[in-house]
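Morning F.,

Quick status update on the modeling queue. The single chain you submitted on Monday has been processed. Sequence for confirmation:
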Amino acid sequence: MAANKLQLTVITQEKIVLQDEVDLVLAPGWDGQIGLLPGHIGLLTKLQPGELFIFKGPSITVLAVSGGLLDIHNNQLSVMADSAVRADEIDVAKVEAAKQKAEEALRERLSGTEFALAEADLRKAVLELKVAKKRYRHQHGI
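Structure tokens below.
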């Protein structure tokens, strides 16, 4: 690994979402967005739902993450996310359907646990739609 790179791993409970050497990562830290460059001091922090921007040379990869933890030490950056999906892999129609289903569930009389799950599903769908639509506008110069 080059000394001026970060070794990034983004994982969820299901899989490794991304593993690569990168130049810069912007993450949705609990108290606001944080930037991580090679040589960053050791840090363990909670993430809030948002966009994870990954810069490698001239390219930028965007992931929608719905919370989790971030750990960096010795240029090893790990993001352990509750969920993480690449902007270019978001199926807008599928997410719109999930959003509608979650909204319908919230209108019903649900138990506390069911309500919390439906609310979490809705937040995840809204975040993924935001990321997908931003990517679409960027690609089409809108």
